[in-house]
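Morning run. Coffee first, then this:
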Amino acid sequence: MNEFTEALRLWFQTLPMRDVMLNTRWGWPMAESIHFIGLTLLVGTVGMFDLRLLGVAKQIAPAALHRLIRYGVAGFIGNVLTGICFLSGAPDQYIYNWAFRWKLIFLVIAGLNILVFYSAFFRRVRVLGEGAAIPFGARVVGAVSICAWIGVITAGRLLTFYRPFFADGKYNF
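And here it is:
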């Protein structure tokens, strides 16, 4: 393990929500519930918009679906906040976990994909009406988005199956 990773792990253990996560009966279950609701909002709204970019539900104007994205952003913010709570409660089970690292990689891909969409395609897509064809590049962005969020969900689910363990005080993978 490198010094930065270990310093990060130790820093997460200093966060104030650690006590709530570890020393209350409701901390972890409440955070899990909020995380799931946030994920539902995020994938539900962004997923619908991505499917529209891919040509599903052509009778709906992209701008009409895009108005729902703010709920997905709210869900994402909830997921980031609860994710920090999880990290503070068990940083070693996340930071040294390959599934968590893959989750972060997929999150970065999703974030970069969002930047590409809003910088290159959003102005053209938002003015399209019902039944309009989506530009090819925007369809690619929609496909990458769906794949990235599936990756985030899959890696997040695998977190509980691929946990690092200790042997003689060292992390083993």
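The first helix runs from residue 3 to 12. Good start to the day.
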